[in-house]
Design brief:
The protein is of the alpha/beta class and 232 residues long. It has eleven helices and eight strands. Helices cover 44% and strands 16% of the residues.
Length: 232
């Protein structure tokens, strides 16, 4: 899979996202639509951005009983998105049902990736509150393997975990990594961050970059800097 940069379009209205995307005149970046924009604008925003020619990662992180996830995935698949996701914690039965729901009548489907442990969950809270008696690294590797064995295409993880996931699941298993900051940029609320160049070195397949691009004085230049460091 070719490395690429995905822009997290964390806006709360259609106007805000269109005025942002309209700045990109000579490139069509891969974009991520998350819960905020989807809940604000509904599926219409996905159809419109797709119609404008962008590849879309629809980041809704499904986690429910298998039948509900299967039927919901069929709806998302019909939106013609490129990547969707769910939580490994729903277990293999839910992940397999999701794949069935995603598969279109012609046999094609969006890529399906999984959240292992949220990067906002500390090892201490995972052990105390979720009663997982293992290290974060062991848990992420085990969850990634569950996703792979259920037929999924990859996981969302910290760039710092990309190597462990590649080792457990193979080089072809996709690693999508948020928590990206430029060496000279603001960290904001992210804790474990790496630069685009470091994410490449650590083995990420896609980097998800939000504020370093969306809040930059020149978002197009910031995007191109990410591509320069991570893809080229
Ligand atoms: O602005 P920033 O670059 O921090 O945005 C990162 C994006 O990746 C946000 O949309 C955030 O919700 C998402 N994300 C994350 N950590 C995860 C999963 C998703 O930061 N573990």
């Amino acid at each position: 899979m070719k490395r690429d940069v995905i822009i997290a379009c964390d806006f709360n209205s259609a106007e805000a996202v269109y005025s942002f995307l309209d700045k990109f005149t000579d490139v069509k970046p891969f974009v991520k639509i998350g819960m905020e924009l989807f809940y604000a604008e509904g599926p219409a925003i996905v159809r419109e951005i797709k119609k404008r020619g962008y590849k879309i990662f629809l980041d809704l992180k499904l986690h429910d009983i298998p039948t509900t996830v299967k039927k919901s995935m069929a709806v998302l698949s019909a939106l013609d998105v490129d990547i969707v996701n769910l939580h490994v914690a729903g277990t293999s039965e839910m992940m397999k049902a999701a794949l069935e729901g995603l598969t279109r009548p012609d046999g094609t489907r969006p890529l399906l990736i999984a959240v292992t442990q949220l990067t906002s969950t500390s090892e201490e809270r995972m052990q105390k509150e979720l009663l997982i008696n293992a290290t974060m690294e062991e848990t992420v590797a085990h969850y990634a393997l569950n996703a792979k064995n259920s037929g999924l295409d990859g996981v969302v993880c910290s760039p710092l975990e990309a190597g462990i996931v590649a080792k457990a699941c193979g080089e072809d298993f996709i690693r999508v990594t948020p928590g990206i900051r430029f060496a000279d940029g603001d960290v904001g609320d992210q804790v474990r961050v790496t630069t685009p160049a470091k994410a490449k070195e650590l083995g990420a397949t896609f980097i998800v970059v939000g504020r370093p691009i969306t809040a930059a004085d020149d978002p197009v230049a910031a995007y191109k800097r990410c591509v320069e460091e991570f893809v080229n």
